[in-house]
Task: structure prediction
Amino acid sequence: MKPGYSTKGLVALTLTLGAFMGLCAGCGCWGKKEEPVQVAVLIESVPESGASVLMAGHDQGYTPVTIYGLQPGSYEVIMNLDRYRRKIETVTVTEALEQKFTMEMEPIVGDVTISSTPEAEVFLDGELIGKTPILKKVLQVGSYSYEIKHPDYYPVKNDFLMEENFKLEFEHELRPMESQLTVTSRPSSANIWLNNIAQSQRTPASIVLRPGRYLVSVHSEGFVQADSMVVLEANAPQTVHLEMSPGKVPQGMVLIPAGKFTMGTNEQSPDERPAREVDLPGFYIDRFEVTNQAYKKVVSSHTFPKGQDNFPALGISWTEALRYCEAIGKRLPTEAEWEKAARGSDKRIYPWGDIFSPQMSNTKETELGMPTRVGYFYATPSTHGCMDMAGNAYEWVMDWYDAYPGNPDVTKDYGQIFRILRGGSFLTEKFEARTSARHFDRMDSGRRDYGFRCAMDARE
Result:
């Protein structure tokens, strides 16, 4: 030990420092240790609640959920909710004691298009969303139900399941509500035909029908058949009254009065020449082509597509047509009779006049490619009231195919080889639908557009 130092003084100093430090520790002279901040965080999801929440490595429950005891910092939040895409987002928790985070969930969607004929209202899950067409409406995945409503048509319901990215399309042809047609006549108790199909009722009668065009015909013995075209709208009752005049014309036929007319023409095909005056006695001819329904009553083996009862009987040969006519007490018209019934006395080119339009008859120009029911082109009858004498079905007549008197042409087809057909068909062009046009074929040929109508001698 150096001179001047006392060990006693050193011990005293050491003890004094230790006591001081102990005193400071006891009284907090060095400061108190701080506890970490504890934060409460509210997690919400939109547009729907109920999403599961994974945060801070633990399942925290379902939104809205409050998570306690979080320390400030960044956290990854993972949320799952049915029909929504999985949501992953990083949030920053600050030292604020209460905080809220709202997560927007992206729905999983597809789209649907709904159309109808006619236009109608659409209710999706009971809620009106507009009128058809509903185009590419975005919907969240899931099950849906819609109903299409129109006051004059039966409603349509449909259920569907929307999946992710589906593009669904639904088209509906609405079924119209029936209408009531009341048919009256003078005299009453007349037989009724609708589109040339016999009805069980007699006038006056009320008949429930689907909307559409109806040729209404009534007939009583001793009177001339009366007709009227009626257009029925959906769910709209209508009444038609028909007046019959006295006469002996058989039902379904028209009287072609005796007299002269010009047959043939000098301006078209060689076999139509020469134009000449022909004098005929009066006769009756069917107003319509013989229908499938009528033909099958006589020829039970005859077949035809369902729903075509009142379409012309087709695929008929000349021999079969003659046999049918004879079976019901009638005959085939002569070529001159057919042309007079179609042409009248004014030399018209077509049964309705000289101007052709595809809307006037069923020819190739109409582009239907198939026959129509008889009388469909009701607005274009011949001058004598015969229907479908241009187009729809070729019609057999009685005559052999031969040159007209005064025609010097000689061809190998003339003579007692072929029988004549008139009027053109749905397969031929307008040239063949002219009232003077002639077509010929073997009498045993029954092409798919060959039909006929019947004739009778006029009663005294």
